[in-house]
Structure formats: C-alpha cells, structure tokens
Amino acid sequence: MVYEKYLKSKNNRFIFAPSNSSGGFSNEAWDDFRAGEDWADTILFIGDTNKNSETAILFEKFLLQTEKPVVIARDAVDILINSSSRLLEKYNLTIIASFAQLQKIFSTIFYPKILTFSMQLSNLVDNLHKFTLTYPAEIITFHAEKFNSRKKRRSIFKPISCPKFPAEKNFANQNLERRNPSSHRSMADVESNQNRSSCHN
Fold first, then answer.
1. pTM value?
2. What contacts 58, CB < 8 A, 6 or more positions away?
3. Percentage of the chain surpassing pLDDT 70?
4. How many of the other CB atoms lie within 10 Å of CB of 100?
5. Judging by DSSP bridges, how do beta strands 154-159 and 146-151 pair with one another?
6. Which of 24, 73, 77, 80 shows the shortest CA–CA distance to 49?
7. CB 194 within 8 A of CB 185
8. How buried is 199 (Cβ within 10 angstroms: 0-12 exposed, 13-18 middle, 19+ buried)?
9. What dihedral do alpha carbons 34, 95, 98, 144 form, nearest 10°?
10. pLDDT in tens, 108-138
11. Which whole number is the average pLDDT over 176-197?
12. pLDDT the model gives residue 61
C-alpha cells in the first residue's frame, strides 16, 4: 500500500489490480486485465508475481483468450510452465526464456529432444527449428553467448556483446571538441576507452 500511494501521487497512469494474500493477482483482477488488453497494443508479462495457483490460472485464462501480441519473460515463464502445451499453440505469444526454462518447457510437454548446456549451437538451432514447426509460438533464448530467436521458418542468431550508442557518443564528442578544440587526442581513443569502461561496469 505504501508503494501504491507513492506511485499514485507521482503518476495517475498506474492501475492497481486486486491481489491475493500471497502477493499475486487474484481472480478479481480479471476486469482490469481485460481493460488493459483493450488499451494496449502489446502486452508484457514481466513476472515478480509470486508462484501461486490463483495467479497462474488467471494468467492462463487471459493468455488463451487474447489475440493481442504477448511477451512472457522472467519468472512469468515459470508460473506458466504447466500450461506450456496449450500456450505454445498461440501464434501471438513470444516466450523469452533462459536456457534452463527452455529445458523445463521441453520436459513439461514431453518433447522428444533433450537440451543440454554443453550442446553445440548448431544442435540447438536444429531442435528449435523442429520445435517451432510444431508449435507456432515464438521462442527467444540465450545459449553459447548468443541471442537466439526462432519462429517457424525465421531464425535470428546474434552474439551478446556490449551495446553501442552512436547518438550518445556523437553528443559526447561534440562537447569534448567544444571544451578542448586544440586537443590532439584522437576521438577513436576516446570511443575505445568509453567502450571498455562501459563493457566492464
């Protein structure tokens, strides 16, 4: 209640749905879920709802009826593991799962492939390819320092690396030039040092 009062005083766009004694959403939150669905273009289930059956049932009920794009992440994946066989049939669903969570999903639906942390990336690609030919939901996971996304015949594989922000760099470079126009230090050195410090933080 303290957070609710604080947030309401700062921003009136928050909607607080009814909760249960476990700290998750109660069945009474259904109308608020539907109102949010009508307003939103895409829906994100980010988790942090506690793992209780009432919340899991509410989530499953909502996800099975909505046609809006939905993203499930973090421990929202865990609370819905037992509903995997039905939810994976939803074409509008994207599941962002850790590799361990993906293993649980495969096991829960008795998928005849075993995922291991030591497996080659090519083997994972092949397994996900066959998996998403059977189930229309999109799967995003991380393995072998690669970001992996798979939906039907479309695959994306990218290395996980330190992000670069050209716009911020250009702004910083302009300020540096204004303050010290006679400096002979190359901007390449500045950018290199910025990248190293931001990657190791």
1. 0.68
2. 25, 26, 27, 29, 30, 33
3. 65
4. 11
5. antiparallel
6. 24
7. no
8. exposed
9. -150
10. 999 988 888 888 888 888 888 888 888 999 9
11. 44
12. 94
The CA distance from 69 to 40, in Å, is: 9
Question: Is the distance from CB of 65 to CB of 43 less than 8 angstroms?
Answer: no
The strand pairing partners of 140, in sequence order, are 96, 149
Assigned token pair, 20: 């249960």
DSSP string, the chain: -HHHHHHHHH-TT-----B-TTSSB-GGGHHHHHHHHHH-SSEEE---S---HHHHHHHHHHHHH--S-EEE-THHHHHTGGGHHHHTT-TTEEEE--HHHHHHHHHHTT-S----TTS-HHHHHHHHHHHHHH--SEEEEEETTEEEEEETTEEEEEE------HHHHHHHHHHHHHH-TT----HHHHHHHHHHHHHH-
Do 88 and 70 touch, CB atoms closer than 8 A?
Answer: no
Tokens representing residue 13 in the block? 């766009």
Axis crossing angle, helix 187-200 with helix 166-179, rounded to the nearest 10: 130
